[in-house]
Structure formats: structure tokens, C-alpha cells
Design brief:
Blueprint: E1 2-6, H1 9-36, H2 38-60, E2 62-67, E3 71-76, E4 79-83, E5 88-96, H3 98-101, E6 105-109, E7 112-116, E8 120-127, E9 132-136, H4 140-153
Parallel strand pairs: 7-9
Antiparallel strand pairs: 1-2, 2-3, 3-4, 5-8, 6-7, 8-9
Helix pairs in contact: 1-2
Length: 154
């Protein structure tokens, strides 16, 4: 079973704006090369590369949960984690707010890792090492049921 949830619309819009800003920076560099030379113009592109990276992450951000022989969590394109069923202590669904993690995206808060897309229900996986993985997805009840069924079948 695979559950994929794309980032919210505002995140994709902001990412698209940043990608367009990168295009503006490239155009500016082309104009500056004639005036100030290739070296200084290239240095002006360094911040633009960060803008390009941030824009790409925001446009492509998604949360994916694969429940098979193990539970694979992924915040595309940055992070992935494979959890064996023997590592899991509990699975529950609860309402989660971005406020708990201080924002949206891939977040860390003490002994918790959050794949946060806004204010919505999430699957909360607690490991035997007392670490929580909070995963917001489209149908957290279905994901939790599949994980519980695999845990019982072990």
C-alpha cells in the first residue's frame, strides 16, 4: 500500500515564484557580465542557486508512505527512513498542527520527526527507542490500519 500526498498549493506557488526569480537572476547576470566582468557576476549567482534549490524543494515537496515488508517514510526530495515492524511500538492517528513542529515541511522537534503539510490528521508511529514519526497524509486512518494489520501478522 502506498500513500502519497503533495504539498499544499501555497507551497507550490511560492516554489514557482522562487524558480521564476532564479530566471530573473540569470537575466541580471547576463547583463552584469558586460559591465562588471564574469567573476563578480558569477558571485552574484551564488544566492540565486540557493533560491533555485529552495524553489525546487517547494514545488516538488510530497509525503509518501509505503507499507510493505517495512514502513518506508519519505519527504520527497530530501529525506527517507525505513522502519522495520520490530522497531515499532505503537501506531495511532491524531490531529496534528504545524505549530507543534514550528512550521511545515520536514521538521524535527526533540524526539519527534514530522512530515508536516499543515493542520490535518497524521499517523503517529512510536518506536521502541521512544522516537515519534508524525506523518501527515491524505488518509491516515487507512495507513494506520495497514500498519496495524502487518504488526498483528508478525
Amino acid at each position: 500500500m502506498t500513500e502519497t500526498t503533495n504539498g499544499p498549493a501555497w507551497m507550490r506557488v511560492l516554489g514557482a515564484f522562487l524558480l521564476l526569480s532564479f530566471g530573473g537572476m540569470v537575466a541580471l547576470m547576463v547583463l552584469l557580465v558586460r559591465e562588471i566582468g564574469i567573476g563578480p557576476a558569477t558571485l552574484t549567482m551564488l544566492p540565486a542557486v540557493l533560491v533555485l534549490g529552495a524553489g525546487f524543494v517547494l514545488v516538488t515537496a510530497s509525503v509518501r508512505v509505503d507499507v510493505a515488508d517495512s514502513v518506508a517514510l519519505r519527504f520527497f526530495p530530501l529525506w527517507r527512513r525505513q522502519l522495520e515492524y520490530s522497531e515499532l511500538e505503537s501506531v495511532r492517528v491524531e490531529e496534528q498542527s504545524w505549530f507543534r513542529f514550528g512550521g511545515v515541511g520536514l521538521r524535527w522537534n526533540g524526539a519527534a520527526t514530522g512530515l508536516i503539510l499543515g493542520n490535518r490528521p497524521a499517523v503517529v508511529l512510536r518506536t521502541r527507542r521512544n522516537h515519534e514519526y508524525v506523518v501527515q497524509c491524505s488518509d491516515p486512518e487507512r495507513v494506520a490500519e495497514h500498519i496495524r494489520a502487518r504488526l498483528v501478522a508478525r
